[in-house]
Structure prediction request, 332 residues.
Amino acid sequence: MDLVRTPEERFRNLADYPFAPHYVEVNDGQGGTLRMHYLDEGQGEVILCLHGQPSWSYLYRKMIPLLTQAGYRVIAPDLAGFGKSDKPTERASYTYANHVLWMKGLIEAVDLRGATLIGQDWGSLIGLRLVAENPERFARVIAANAALPDATGIAEELAPKLHTLLAQTPALPLPDVFAKLAGPMQDRPPFMYWVRHCDAHEDFHPAEVMKLALKHCSDAEYAAYAAPFPSEEYMQGARQFPSLVPITPDNPAVPANRAAWAFFEQCDKPFLTAYSDADPVMKGQEKRFIETVPGAQGQKHTIIEGGGHFLQDDVGVELAAVVIEFMRANPV
Prediction:
C-alpha cells in the first residue's frame, strides 16, 4: 500500500493542542503496516474519542482537559488518512472494512478494555461496528451526531436508480452544498451533493469544510484543521469517505452494518445519544437508537443547543459535561 505521512513541522505550535503524540503500527490489510497516531491523556476509565470526516483528533481539544480532570483517560486516534496518521494515496485503499480493520488494530494494540465510545460522524460509523464486533472491549456508548446506516427501508430494486441519480449529481461549490444539506429534499437526497463535492470538486479542502461548518473558526484553528493536508495527495481519504456511506442496499458494508444493528437491538450496555440542534446531516438519526437499543432505555438523551455537525468544537464544554454525567450515572 502506497502511503504518505504529513511532515511533523506542519503540526508545530498548533492552537490549544499541547498533547503528546503516540503511534502504533497496524496491519494495513495488504501484508504491510500503517502507522496510526493517537492521543493518550489522563488516568482512569478509558474514553475512546473517534472523529469523523474531514476532521482529526484536534476536534476533541476542548473536551480532553475536562474529561481528564474528571478522572478519565482519553484516547483520541486519528483515523487513517487524517491528522498525524498515515495516508494511503490510492482512494481504493479506503474502504469501510479497512477503516474498521485499522481502528481494530489500534484498540488491540493499546489493549482497550471497559472503554466508553464517543463516536461522531464517521467516528460512529466505525466505532459502532467496533463495539458490535468487539463487545468485550466496551462498557458504554455515546452516539454524538452519529449514525449507523444500513439502507433499511430502501428496496433492492432501487439501487440502480440511486446509482444513476448519484452519477448525475453535479459537484457543486461548498456553499451551495451546505445550502442543499440544510434545505428540504427535492429531486434527490441532499447527501448526494456532499458525496459529489468531496469526490470530484477541484476546490475541495478539509479546512474549508471545517471553517464553513463551525460556529466559529479562527485563523489559528483553520490552520490546525488544514495542517494534515499539505496537498491533494494527502486528501484521498477525506475525499473518499462520503462515497463509502451505505446509502444503497447493494453497498458492500450493508450486511456488516445490519449485523451490527442486530447486536445493538439486543445490547444492554448503557447507550446515550447526544446530538446538537443545528446539525443538518444527522438530525433525527438518534430516534432509531433510542427506540431500538435496550441500553438506551431510561437514559438522559439530549439535544445540545448551539452546536452544528461538529459539536465537539462548537459545544465541546457542554458535551464533556454530558459525557461525565452519563458515565457517573452508569458506573461499571
